[in-house]
Design a protein that fits this description.
The structure is a homodimer of 394-residue chains. Chain A has 8 helices and 19 strands. Chain A is α+β, with helices and mostly antiparallel strands and 394 residues long. The first copy, chain A, folds into 2 domains: 91 residues, Immunoglobulin-like (Sandwich), CATH 2.60.40; 234 residues, Alpha/Beta hydrolase fold, catalytic domain (Rossmann fold). In chain A, β10 and β11 form a beta hairpin. In chain A, strands 12-13-15-14-16-17-18-19 form an 8-stranded mixed β-sheet, sandwiched between helices. In chain A, strands 4, 5, 8, 9, 10 and 11 form a 6-stranded antiparallel β-sheet that branches. A 5-stranded antiparallel β-sheet of chain A has the order 1-2-3-7-6, with no helix packed on it. Chains A and B meet through β8, β9, β11 and β12 of A and β8, β9, β11 and β12 of B.
Amino acid sequence: MRNRLTYMLFAAFVFLGSSNINSQNPVVGDFKPSSLNQPGKEYPQVNSEGRVRVQISAPEAKMVQLDIGAVKYDLVKDAQGVWTGESAPQDEGFHYYQLNIDGASVPDPNSLYFYGAGRWGSGIEIPAGDEEFYAMKNVPHGQVRELIYFSESTQSMRRCFVYTPPQYDKNTEKRYPVLYLQHGGGEDETGWSNQGRVNLIMDNLIAEGKAKEFIIVMDNGNWHMPERTRPAPNDTTKQEEKPKAWPPEGWADGFMKTMLEDIIPMIDANFRTLADQDHRAMAGLSMGGMETRIITLANPDVFSYVGIFSGGSISPDDVDKAPGFKENVKLVFVSYGSRELENPRSGLWGDPVENTKALNEAGMNTHFYVSPLTAHEWQSWRRGFYQFAPRLFQ
Amino acid sequence: MRNRLTYMLFAAFVFLGSSNINSQNPVVGDFKPSSLNQPGKEYPQVNSEGRVRVQISAPEAKMVQLDIGAVKYDLVKDAQGVWTGESAPQDEGFHYYQLNIDGASVPDPNSLYFYGAGRWGSGIEIPAGDEEFYAMKNVPHGQVRELIYFSESTQSMRRCFVYTPPQYDKNTEKRYPVLYLQHGGGEDETGWSNQGRVNLIMDNLIAEGKAKEFIIVMDNGNWHMPERTRPAPNDTTKQEEKPKAWPPEGWADGFMKTMLEDIIPMIDANFRTLADQDHRAMAGLSMGGMETRIITLANPDVFSYVGIFSGGSISPDDVDKAPGFKENVKLVFVSYGSRELENPRSGLWGDPVENTKALNEAGMNTHFYVSPLTAHEWQSWRRGFYQFAPRLFQ
């Protein structure tokens, strides 16, 4: 498996998507309640085109809008003061959204809530052709455990979630590898299980014999930027200043310290881990991928497997500056949603496709995955994780 | 301890409360952000009188209200379209609330969300004189684990949360007693940890050596009423019909079956439990207390300790009709918020004070607790649990 670069062609996946429908066409009427509605709620609904229909009673309001995918759609009021309306077709998978009532941005009172974009807000699920891999099935299920612990490096109480595989409490002599898995910017330690459904993906992979059993640790990677990159409080003259390079040098140092000095030792002390570099992985999405890149390049004696989902890539030049990385790291996995790679290809630290190809040609085991017809959203990361997990600890 | 009835006098606790303040007085200006705000949010705020102040931008709105404690308070708009206003003083502890924007009832976008009143909605915490017992402290913490399992009795996937005490994963030879702890109507399996902070209460009690270590299982006790008590679908003529007695006969049979046939065996199979009647307790609040009453009276060979928080009581007559209950059950604990017992005393199945006193005089070990100056709300149940837990498995 080493030295094999799997670069998936976008064209091969076009059949999976259904979102290339002109939003001016008549709306198809087969709306069904979203799977992420609160118990007993009929709205929001989704149709076979992937349109989202919301409804809310607001008899005295002048204007109500659905705000999804950075577009606001006007709702229409009926004689009873109930507003209804729908969006253009959305990509498959999970999306954040909100309502706007006479200028107030609020969660839809009918949906479940998720932490993203720096707030707890509404989420909706567009059914996907491949949704079986993250469906809740009658298979053995692992546990998602909420842990509270004191961190010396931050001098504060912290919280993390830990997934333990289905047999963890049965095979009490067995020790397990560990993946440290980070959320994106504006999200927190709840993202990978709530939006990402990572526990269900693992349960399904394990039930099918497609992945090794391992522990997953999901902690909070939010970190203040170094003082020098932020305007001083009340200094309005600097409000428009942006750091010249993002992320700035040293940006992830705080979280790296907490990861190495608090999180990993706490997990090794409280779980039956295989506490060595061979059996430790780190991955993350977006900001979490950027943290993964920085922390694993700086600590090739700590982690063996590296996963970066929509968060940059690693070049041969990066590796040349990181002694031990090339020799010790067994996999560099990089993924993006196909819409993120549309012309011009995005990517911090250079073109991720070219970087990964060059890293492979330089002798490292790499895997590049593209999620078909998805953007910088959770469906890309669910699929990325689904491709990543079977390649760990083999 | 058997045969000791502890009936606390309300008068002894008046000093703890501060809510008897005339809401017409000038508002005290010492507002601070609520401990249940979303990260970085300045509102809602609470002052030393227990008033709640909310703020939301809604430039085009005609009317915005704060809806808390069954009272709606008008907010006032400033020149920038930001609405601000406050409530009368609230009782200590946790309260659900919502905003009303031009007739739309929505969650406050600044608060954390909790499942209660049949919806995920806003919650606020009024600091309490005794809040230390449920504070997050730097003590050893247990875990709250999310479990997914298939239930034969309902033919569906279900979810529960399980609290394991701090040393559970360290003392791997030790087996533990189990408390089955139920939420109230309109709530779900998330209530006791999110609103009730039961994990923190247990961690603190254990750290102080005041309670035995035990496992707590929090499952979903919501259950459809028997068909005969509900109007037929689309039969609008019967919408106003109410069952003559509530709860109706057989109301908890479905959940009792799931508890006995699915939940308890699943827990005993997956945790290191002491799987006998001596080491099994059941308790619940409101509807969960009513379920506890019915299920424990029908199964005195299954449970040893019974806790009913704001959900009725057990009379000597009930016990006479339940063979084995008097001999086998080691504690009947009943609690209410003091405001629930104000004249006339509420209580399903008769006066809870008189019932519990009579049960004690009939020879059972009982404990009656009254939470000072609280109503049918979470502060009553946190305090009830705090009094109940140290009396278990002694």
